[in-house]
Amino acid sequence: MKLTTLLIGLCSASALAFAAHAETLTIATVNNGDMIRMQKLTDDFTAKNPDIQLQWVTLEENVLRERVTTDIATKGGQYDVMTIGNYEVPIWAKQGWLLELNNLGADYDVDDLLPAIRGGLSLDGKLFAAPFYGESAMIMYRTDLFEKAGLKMPEKPTWEFIGEAARKITDRNAGISGICLRGKAGWGENMAFLTAMDNSFGGRWFDEKWQPQFDQPEWKNTLQSYAELLKDAGPSGASSNGFNENLTLFQQGKCGMWIDATVAASFVSNPKDSTVADKVGYAIFPNKEGINNHGNWLWSWNLGVPAGSQKAEAAQKFIAWATSKHYTELVAEKEGWANVPPGTRTSLYKNENYEKAAPFAAPTLEAMNAADITKPSVKPVPYTGGQFVAIPEFQGLGTTVGQLFSAVVAGQMSVDDALAQAQQVSVREMTRAGYIK
Amino acid sequence: MARAISTRRKTVTTVVAWLVALIIFFPILYTIITSFKTEPEAIAGISLIPSGTFENYIEVQAQRDYFRPFLNSVVISLGSTLIALLISVPAAWSMAFSPARRTKDILMWMLSTKMMPAVGVLVPMYLIFRDTGLLDTRTGLTIVLTLVNLPIVVWMLYTYFREIPGEILEAARMDGASTLKEIVYVLTPMAVPGIASTMLLNIILAWNESFWTIRLSAANAAPLTAFIASFSSPQGLFWAKLSAASTLAIAPILIMGWFSQKQLVRGLTFGAVK
Q: Which long-range contacts (CB under 8 A, 24 or more apart) does A337-342 make?
């Protein structure tokens, strides 16, 4: 009896001692399928690292962005690992807000990261965040509707072809719109799409002296084509459609084409949610005839460690686990290859099991490899970034311009007025921010 | 004839009252209905008949722990309400029964703090919380919610106290009651309906406050408002799950409101008819 009591006492004492020494990492993240999946699989990490406990703070994307920015700028220290986009990484790294990830372990294989993604997360050759999943943009189209209309998607479609095809397959009586595009205002909504589209039209946001370019013909062509396309072949209420709204329309069979993030491919081809899962084809982001540019859309959600973190070693251990090849295999084992986080590692796209389970693997890789965020436009630019401009002012400016362009789609403003106002606002903001001397 | 008109009028006013109540309650009702739909159903269009699935509730429970944010909400809203009342009762007493020349100005100034957008003081507040170690603590959120709701509590109590005849307090004073005894034994019992409704309203306001509670908390002190916000997704469908999370979050306060509605209405109309 005494021995039992002693043993229980010793166990309790060691449990208390362990609890006292266990480090708790607070991880800020967005609510998307891949992140939720990771939260469910963290037992694998905590089993291997019993001295590290994890707690999650999951938030809506914009709130998360606002909160982690406030926290990191004020050195609040609320988070040990932050989920951030490749828009923030270079800006924050330059500010000294992120720790260099130089302790990810010998078997991490940093050279396996897709070069385009790795480049976007590095500054002076140093990695400041590790990609959890990555995406570019591509065309998703209904093969059955194309066949019915006698159309064949070219290997490298142009905007001219997309326009013709969209108008041809539009069937208002059947409730089918030829094309669904983002119209909802926001730097990460319609402006992500329009910036990429303008890149593929040969345009740019700023010239080498940071002069806004909305008064140039490329932007006028872009906005005119976009507005006319949505008017002739888009769904009703397109000015309030973002990623989720278009996803629903496509899944319900109401869009002939949808040009958006490659991550959507796994949703539209999932028979559980999509009524057209077996009728979807994929093609690279279009370009304007004669312009060798396919939009340069490149986005990744990444894990980074805020500078000044007291738990940097444990945080890097977690990041190494969450973005490793081992994690990919873990997801494949538990949830199937189609559900592994895409767009971060070269080895994934050489895996036969993945190619078999994910028919969109090859076009996704092609789209990602085609993106070069160091040269978003065929014209010279003073910035990096594909569907965004990697400067701190872009969030505010992009959203303001996005509201003007959304008003064009809603029929509340003309293309010329919207461009004139966009130019005026941009010149004012860039002068105020000190870019224009 | 007069009786017939009266009955008809009564019927009409009852129908209008029900209609108004339905319109006011409709967003909550629709949230509850949506929580029993599948995700594609939720976004398909307006429909009042759900397929009746419990999948969203199961998914919400599987994804997040409900109990911890619930407990945080209870502690924060009750704590901030009690502190606000402790401060506001004597403040409202002095303003109602011993007004000074600038009392009205002070009252207006207190109310004017509610006119400023909260985001305007986010960074200073964040820095104060960081430096005092109050970030992501229940104590910090209790303090901030007390401050946020204090003007409304003072105003409400001031209005109720003004309805109480000053002569009763004078009589108590003449009988030798101290200020504290006057407030505790004479004023408070007379103003119970007003204090109760102020308390209930403040609990509701604190329970639903999302700006500060989301921004000043992380994992430890996050209340149900943060629990709801965590179900909004940038990529993928989430309306049905968000509705299920919202229903779970508002259920306790809805039930509390239902059971205390008599007290709440009595307090809100206290002194309205003389």
A: A338/A266, A338/A270, A339/A33, A339/A37, A339/A266, A341/A34, A341/A132, A341/A133, A342/A133, A342/A134, A342/A135, A342/A262, A342/A263, A342/A266
Mean per-residue pLDDT, B202-226: 93
Domain span at residue B122?
Answer: 65-230
CB atoms within 10 A of CB A405: 26
pLDDT digits (tens, 9 = 90+) for A105-153: 989 999 999 998 999 899 999 999 999 999 999 999 999 999 999 999 9
Contact map slice: A 14-73 vs B, CB within 8 A: 26, 28, 30-33, 36, 39, 55-61, 63, 66-67, 70-71
Q: Which residue of A has its CA nearest to B223?
A: A57
Of A30, A61, A63, the CB nearest to B214: A63
Q: Is the pLDDT of residue A18 over 50?
A: no
Taking the CA of residue B219 and the nearest CA in chain A, the distance in Å comes to: 6
Whether the complex's predicted ipTM is more than 0.85 is answered with: no
Residues β-bridged to residue A257:
A141, A179
pLDDT in tens, B229-249: 888 877 677 889 999 999 999
Number of other residues whose CB lies within 10 A of the CB of residue B100: 10
How many CB atoms within 10 Å of residue B176? 7
Correct CATH for A137-297+379-432 of 3.40.190.10, 3.40.50.1970, 3.40.50.2300, 3.30.110.70: 3.40.190.10
How much is the pLDDT for A4? 58
Residue A77 near chain B (CB below 8 Å): yes
The CATH number of the domain holding residue B178 is: 1.10.3720.10
Say yes or no to pLDDT of B274 above 50.
no
Domain ranges, ordered by start, for chain A:
21-135+299-357, 137-297+379-432
Residue A52 parent element (H or E)? strand A52-59
Instruction: Say if A268 is an interface residue toward chain B (CB within 8 Å).
Output: no
Q: What is the C-alpha to C-alpha distance for residues A205 and A184, in angstroms, rounded to an integer?
A: 19
The answer on pLDDT for A267 being more than 90 is no
Under 8 Å between Cβ of A88 and A300:
no
**Residues of A whose CB is below 8 A from B135:** 76-78
**Does a structural domain hold residue B33?**
no
**How do residues A240-256 score in pLDDT, each as one tens digit?**
999 888 998 999 999 99
Q: What is the pLDDT of residues A348-392, one digit of tens each?
A: 999 999 999 998 999 999 999 889 888 999 999 999 999 999 999
Looking at residue A75, its pLDDT comes to 84
Instruction: Please tell me which of the candidates B63, B229, B233 has its beta carbon nearest to residue A32.
Output: B233
Report how many domains make up chain B.
1
**Is B55 part of a structural domain of the chain?**
no
Q: In this structure, which CATH number among 3.10.20.30, 3.30.1330.30, 3.40.50.920, 3.40.190.10 belongs to the domain A21-135+299-357?
A: 3.40.190.10
> Is A137-297+379-432 the same fold as A21-135+299-357?
yes
> Chain B, 24-43: which have a CB under 8 Å from a chain A CB?
39-40, 43
